[in-house]
Write a structure and sequence with these properties.
470 residues, seven-stranded mixed beta sheet, six-stranded mixed beta sheet, 14 helices, globular
Length: 470
């Protein structure tokens, strides 16, 4: 089976990306049980039981016999070490220093760290080459490999929702014209970003053109999903709107503290000067958008059905890029961060930017090859500040081959960003995952502090109002 154009791009030297999924468990891992579970589920999937074969310009997946000893890695650890959280952070960072995986075997591995951290009794780290699949397909496979904690024989409930359709009462023709215009404007800016339009140099943007080759530091912060839902309900918006508002607020606070000091120690004139300066800052994120007909996580059967394969919406990488601008000026009203984020996202929903970027990338790969397409993508990504993505997780507690899951944290490395933010829901938690180039952002925990504090400030602002804040 040949690789799709998008899959081939992830093997080009300028866009050699890998997915890291950190799974926190509520019990020590039994390697024998885990290997048996992998044998019964994961390696039955063609992508996880095939190696990559390269013949001239052709790449294809070739079935092979999987030796689990080559994929399940169990390093020796001291269970009584002084700083287990730091050990895990350093271990994951070392995984990002390995630029390529062994092509003589399937491109995935799982690392078992039987060590108690502040958030879990043990840690499993999946490392998967991005050509195997995107977040939606890989999360669907993970869910197919788990069971409800309350009912070990039942698969977890898969959260999904249909994409919103058009509303004739709002004017069908006007909506179509608006979509065409927004797409036109977005693609002009998309092309300008490839050619010359670069984000402002800040303490979040890497200056090196090959920041993708540098080791990454991955940290995560677990916050309450219920707090996010409070804001969602009060403002009558989506969880995604809330999270984008929180990220916008957190980045603004971080830039303010890192670049200009504490406002409380400055005069009013200096404070206003700083706000005006930040308003001129161009800070954009490349947002990965799922292009499957149904948004959210789908069942493995749906992704692998013959109909899905024929429509080319099944397994693999099916996403496009969207440029999402952020306002970095400090706001007197905390809820303005959320309102601004919602307005930006609502406008982007009336655009086909993600679909067009996917089609253009596919066309370039088919005509000029994956290396040219990845060079274009590399330049486009380099001219923005950060990568942003989200994954919808299970809505109830689940177990991974009999091991109860405490949290899920997923990120990506290998692209030319000094900052990547993922957020992933699971049961009643939201995990915010920050992956950074430590030469650019030396203390990612401080950035996580600002993100968590921003959520608390926004939640408290909603509660203080005591009425619909939309």
């Amino acid at each position: 089976m040949e690789l799709s154009p998008c899959d081939r791009m992830f093997h080009a030297p300028l866009l050699n990306c890998h997915i890291l999924s950190i799974i926190g468990l509520n019990a020590a891992v039994d390697p024998t049980v885990l290997k048996f579970g992998l044998q019964q589920t994961l390696i039955k999937h063609p992508r996880f039981s095939s190696k990559l074969s390269i013949n001239e310009r052709k790449m294809k997946w070739t079935p092979t016999i999987v030796n689990l000893q080559d994929h399940v890695i169990i390093p020796k650890v001291d269970p009584k070490m002084d700083s287990p959280d730091q050990f895990v952070e350093d271990y994951v960072s070392r995984l990002t220093t390995i630029p390529t995986m062994d092509l003589s075997k399937p491109l995935w591995e799982i690392h078992i760290l039987n060590i108690k951290t502040s958030n879990a009794q043990s840690i499993c780290v999946f490392k998967i080459h991005h050509s195997i699949g995107d977040a939606v397909s890989l999360m669907s496979l993970l869910l197919a490999s788990t069971r409800k904690k309350s009912d070990p024989k039942s698969l977890p409930t898969i959260p999904s929702r249909k994409r919103a359709g058009s509303n004739a009462s709002n004017g069908f023709m006007w909506m179509k014209l608006r979509t065409i215009w927004n797409t036109f404007v977005d693609m002009i800016l998309f092309g300008a970003t490839i050619l010359f339009l670069e984000d402002t140099k800040t303490s979040l943007k890497g200056s090196s053109s090959r920041v993708d080759l540098k080791p990454k530091r991955v940290v995560y912060r677990i916050v309450s999903l219920d707090d996010i839902k409070v804001v969602k309900t009060k403002m009558n918006i989506t969880i995604n709107d809330v999270m984008l508002g929180v990220i916008q607020a957190g980045l603004s606070r971080y830039l303010n503290h890192e670049c200009a000091g504490d406002n409380d120690q400055k005069g009013e004139k200096e404070k206003q000067k700083k706000i005006n300066l930040q308003k001129k800052t161009r800070l954009r994120a490349t947002l990965m958008v799922n292009l499957r007909p149904t948004s959210g996580i789908q069942s493995l059967e749906t992704l692998m059905s013959k109909e899905s394969k024929q429509k080319k919406w099944g397994w693999g990488n099916k996403f496009g890029y969207m440029v999402l601008p952020f306002e970095t000026a400090l706001q007197n009203e905390p809820l303005d961060y959320v309102r601004q984020a919602k307005a930006t996202v609502d406008r982007k929903k009336d655009s086909l930017e993600a679909l067009c970027s996917f089609r253009i990338a596919t066309l370039i790969v088919n005509i000029f090859g994956a290396e040219v397409a990845s060079a274009v993508a590399h330049r486009f990504i380099s001219n923005t500040t950060m990568a942003l993505s989200n994954v919808v997780g299970p809505i109830e507690e689940i177990s991974f081959y009999g091991h109860p899951i405490q949290f899920l944290a997923t990120t990506v490395y290998g692209h030319p960003h000094a900052l990547t933010i993922h957020y992933q829901s699971y049961f009643n938690k939201m995990t915010i995952v920050v992956a950074v180039d430590p030469d650019v952002i030396p203390n990612p925990h401080k950035l996580c502090d600002h993100l968590e504090e921003s959520l608390n400030i926004i939640k408290n602002a909603v509660l203080d109002k005591g009425f619909d804040a939309a």
